[in-house]
Specification:
12 strands, 2 domains, Uridine Diphospho-n-acetylenolpyruvylglucosamine Reductase, domain 2, globular, transmembrane, five-stranded mixed β-sheet, alpha+beta, Cytochrome p450, about 10% strand, about 55% helix
Length: about 450
C-alpha cells in the first residue's frame, strides 16, 4: 500500500500538458502493474488478495453474475453517506430494484424534462449577468454542480424542492468531511470535531428526509397528493402498491430504507452528471470543430425553441460527443467486486473473499480495442454505435452492465443532453489561459483546480 501511495503522490505532483492521456496521472500503480504483469494481475491490498482484470470477456462474466461477484461491503463512512440499492445484494437488492424501477421508466422521465430545462435556464441567466459582450472567464464547474443539484432536488422532491436542496447541501458537506478523514494519515483514538459533525449531519439529513416523506405519505393516504411525477412520489406509490398487493409490509421498503434511497439520489443524480458536463465543456473548448458541429445540430433540431424529450432524442452528434467524453473521462475510474462463493473465472479458480478490480478507464484507453487514435477526442468512432466502436468487444459500459446496470442512465443522459444543448444554443466557449488540466478522482473524476473557460454570448 505504501508503494501505491508514493506512486500516486509522485504522479499528482507533476503538472501535465492538456492531453487526454490521463491514466499515468490518476492511476499510476495500476497502470504499471498491468504493463509489467499483464491484463490479469495479482496484487495485495493490505492483507486482502486482489485481482486486476482488463480482459473484456472476463469483465462481462463478472458483471453478468452479480450473485457470485458481489459489490464489496460499504465502509462505515460510506454508510453515513447513503446505503440504498447500490450497496444491497441478493433478495434485498431485487426488492428495491423492482420498486425503484417504476420511477425511471421512460414515460416517467418525460415528465422530468421540463425540470431539466428550468434548472438550465436558471444557470444560463446567472451567466447572462456576468459574461460581457467581449466574453468573460467563468469557472463553469461550480455552476454545473449547482445545476445538477437543483435538477435532482426538483425531480426527486417536487414541491419540497427547498428541503431537498438543503438535504443535498448537507450530503455534500458530509462527503467532503469523509474524504478528509479518509485521506488523513494519523490514527485517531478519540472522537474529534469531524466525527461529531458527521453524526450531526447524519441526524439532520435523516430528520429532513423523514419530514418530506411523512408529509407526502399523509397526502397520499388522504387522497390529496396532487403531484406524484417526482421520484419520491413515484417511489412511495410503488412501495405502497407492493405492500398492498402482497398484504405484507416485508414486500415493501421500511421508512429507513426509503430515507437511504432518497439520500442516494444525490450521489447517483448529481455527482456523475456534473462531472460529465464539466469534462464535455472542457473538451469542446479545445476541439472547436466538434463544438461547431454540435451547435449546428442543436440549432437545426431546436432552433431557438424550448427543447423537449423528442427533440433531445434526435441529437446524434451531441450523443456521440457525450459517449466519447465518457470514454476519455469516465466519472468512475474503477469498479470493484468481491467473490462471494468459490468459483471459476476463465482458467482461474477463485476462493471466496478475493477482491476483483476492474480498471474501466484503462479498458477505455486500450489501443488494442480502440485503435491508434486512442488518446484523441474522436466522437466519430461512435457514429455507427458502441458495438462498431469497440470492434464487437465488451469494452464500453459507462453505466455498468448486466443485472446491476445503472437504473438512472436514461435520467443522466437526458439531463446531460438538455444542459449541453442549451449551453450550445446560447454560448461559444474556449479554454482560458488560467485553466490547469489536473484531472483527479474524489468520488468522481473531477478538474482539481476548476474549469476556467472563456464564454462568449451568441
Amino acid at each position: 500500500m505504501k508503494e501505491v501511495v508514493m506512486m500516486d503522490e509522485e504522479a499528482k505532483s507533476k503538472p501535465i500538458k492538456f492531453s487526454h492521456d490521463i491514466v499515468p496521472r490518476i492511476m499510476p500503480f495500476i497502470q504499471k502493474t498491468i504493463i509489467d504483469y499483464g491484463k490479469k494481475s495479482f496484487i495485495w491490498l493490505g492483507p486482502t488478495p486482489a485481482l486486476l482484470i482488463m480482459d473484456p470477456e472476463l469483465i462481462r462474466e463478472i458483471l453478468s453474475k452479480s450473485n457470485i461477484f458481489q459489490k464489496p461491503p460499504p465502509t462505515a463512512q460510506t454508510k453515513l453517506l447513503a446505503e440504498g440499492i447500490l450497496s444491497y445484494e441478493a433478495d434485498k437488492w431485487a426488492k428495491h430494484r423492482r420498486i425503484i424501477n417504476h420511477a425511471f421508466h421512460l414515460d416517467k422521465l418525460k415528465h422530468m424534462v421540463p425540470s431539466f430545462h428550468l434548472c438550465t435556464c436558471e444557470m444560463l441567466s446567472k451567466w447572462e449577468k456576468i459574461v460581457s459582450a467581449e466574453g468573460s472567464e467563468v469557472d463553469v464547474w461550480p455552476y454545473l454542480q449547482s445545476l445538477t443539484s437543483d435538477a435532482i432536488s426538483r425531480t426527486a422532491f417536487g414541491n419540497s424542492y427547498e428541503e431537498g436542496r438543503k438535504m443535498f447541501e448537507l450530503q455534500q458537506e458530509l462527503a467532503k468531511i469523509i474524504l478528509k478523514v479518509t485521506e488523513s494519515s494519523y490514527i485517531k483514538f478519540l472522537p474529534n470535531k469531524e466525527d461529531r459533525r458527521m453524526k450531526q449531519i447524519y441526524q439532520e439529513v435523516r430528520s429532513l428526509v423523514l419530514g418530506i416523506i411523512n408529509k407526502r405519505m399523509n397526502a397520499i393516504e388522504a387522497g390529496e397528493a396532487s403531484n406524484n411525477d417526482d421520484l419520491l412520489g413515484i417511489l412511495l406509490e410503488s412501495n405502497l402498491k407492493e405492500i398492498q398487493e402482497h398484504r405484507n409490509k416485508k414486500f415493501g421498503m421500511s421508512m429507513d430504507e426509503v430515507i437511504e434511497e432518497c439520500k442516494l439520489f444525490y450521489f447517483a443524480g448529481q455527482e456523475t452528471t456534473s462531472a460529465l458536463l464539466t469534462w464535455s465543456m472542457i473538451v469542446l473548448s479545445k476541439h472547436s470543430e466538434w463544438q461547431a458541429r454540435a451547435r449546428e445540430e442543436v440549432l437545426q433540431v431546436f432552433g431557438n425553441n424550448k427543447p423537449d424529450y423528442d427533440m433531445l432524442n434526435q441529437l446524434k452528434v451531441v450523443t456521440m460527443i457525450i459517449q466519447e467524453v465518457l470514454r476519455l473521462y469516465p466519472p468512475l475510474l474503477l469498479m470493484g467486486r468481491e467473490v462471494h462463493t468459490e468459483t471459476k473465472l476463465g482458467n482461474l479458480s477463485l476462493p471466496s473473499g478475493v477482491q476483483l478490480l476492474l480498471p474501466t478507464i484503462m479498458l477505455y484507453h486500450d489501443q488494442e480495442i480502440w485503435g491508434e487514435d486512442i488518446k484523441e477526442f474522436n466522437p466519430e468512432r461512435f457514429s455507427e454505435g458502441v458495438n462498431k466502436a469497440t470492434k464487437g468487444k465488451f469494452a464500453y459500459f459507462p453505466f455498468s452492465w448486466g443485472p446491476r446496470i445503472c437504473i438512472g442512465q436514461n435520467f443522466a443522459m437526458l439531463e446531460a443532453k438538455m444542459a449541453l444543448a442549451m449551453i450550445l444554443q446560447h454560448y461559444a466557449f474556449d479554454v482560458s489561459p488560467s485553466y490547469a488540466h489536473v484531472p483527479y478522482s474524489v468520488l468522481t473524476l473531477q478538474p482539481q483546480h476548476g474549469a476556467q473557460l472563456i464564454l462568449h454570448k451568441l
